[in-house]
Amino acid sequence: MAKTSLYDALAASGARMGEYGGVETAKVFAEVSQEFRELTSGCAIYDLGWRAKLVITGEDRVRWLNGMVTNNIKDLPTDRGNYNFVLSPQGRILGDLYAYNRGDYILIDTERFELETLLKLFEHYIIMDDVEVSDKSSTLTAIGIQGPKAAAVLKQAGVSDPGLEPMQVIDITWNGIGISVTRMAGDEFPVYGIWASTATIAQVWKGLLGAGASPVGYEALEKFRVLIGFPKYGTDIRERDLPQETEQEHALNFTKGCYVGQEIVERIRSRGNVHRTFHGFVLDGELPGQGTKLEADGKEVGEITSANRIPTQHGERPVALGYIRREALERGAKITYAGGEAKPVEVPFSLAS
In 3-state terms, what secondary structure has residue 231? Predict the structure, then answer.
């Protein structure tokens, strides 16, 4: 299995390694609950080498990609990005990605394990278009840095936030190294991404550690992902799912015009809500596995897609993400699973209870 560009440096620091997103990276550095606290109340730094980078060039790149994804690419300002689904003609979700308008090219950020599927799909739809898609994952990688103290640590490291808005990216020179800094969407938990070449990423990592950032592995990241209720493609979002079922409205644009799968998305919008929805659950019982069925009054009404134990002010709390039929949710039915009760709640989950 492929390793991230930071693998050797992380392993040498004592991190336990494992597989995440299709590559090997740090699983945990010391203690998962402490790493989770850095993500939510301190300043955490983590390897994003499990994400791939594609570059789309050519005169037709904007028009072509706008016809491939669910969000509005043609009106993206320079150095701004958005979140997208890639659909089949039947409206099923084949992948997800972030797209950034970088002026003379578009940068695509997605998970490594999705890369092969997306490259084949893109190649299939490039017919007479002046478009070229290049995989830059071997030369361009990223680090994540987040938490309420992240901006202060960046400033200490000499990377001051000039007032970045969500999904904006800037290019700067840091200690003679060219890097790009982006801020992800969401105000409650500040999250920055640092893009750098694979040859210099270890220097950037070392500099941020020296400024006060604490390293965390993907086990803590998974707890955070479940905490905020963000679905992961391949786990919570599968090819059988429809866009509106995922509750990720920020991935959809209903005025941009035609794209692959658009007819199904528009039909769902015009006819009303889908029958099931992505939701959060507080668990009273054992931690269920992926695919565990949810029941109400002896009938199946949904399934669990992710479950984890979240450190809160009163100890660890078992929570889950999954899909539930709207009618069961709306009538307040008691939801059970093999091993306990699943109480529907809005996400993000609370750390105070």
Answer: coil
Q: Hey, what are 246's tokens?
A: 């995922």
* Per-residue tokens: 143: 């680090």
Q: Are 318 and 287 a contacting pair, CB within 8 Å?
A: yes
Nearest to 239 by CA among 124, 88, 123, 115: 88
- Single-letter code of the amino acid located at 207: G
Nearest to 264 by CA among 127, 81, 70, 77: 70
Q: Are 343 and 284 in contact (CB under 8 A)?
A: yes
Give the Cβ contact number of residue 127 at 10 Å.
Answer: 7
CB burial of residue 164 (10 Å; 0-12, 13-18, 19+) = middle
CB of 288 closer than 8 Å to CB of 339: yes
d(CA 16, CA 26): 6
**Token couple for 290:** 């992926």
pLDDT digits (tens, 9 = 90+) for 189-204: 899 999 999 999 999 9
pLDDT in tens, 131-186: 999 999 999 999 999 999 999 999 999 998 889 999 999 999 999 999 999 999 87
Which H or E element spans position 205?
Answer: helix 201-210
For residue 174, list its beta bridge partners. Answer: 177
Quote the pTM value.
0.96
How does strand 44-47 pair with strand 214-215?
A: parallel
Q: Which residues contact 44 (CB under 8 A, 6 or more apart)?
A: 35, 38, 144, 145, 146, 147, 150, 213, 214, 215, 216, 220
CA dist 64 and 67 (Å) reads 5
């991230």: which residue's tokens?
4
Are 26 and 16 within 8 A, CB to CB?
yes
Name residue, tokens 């560009």.
Answer: 5
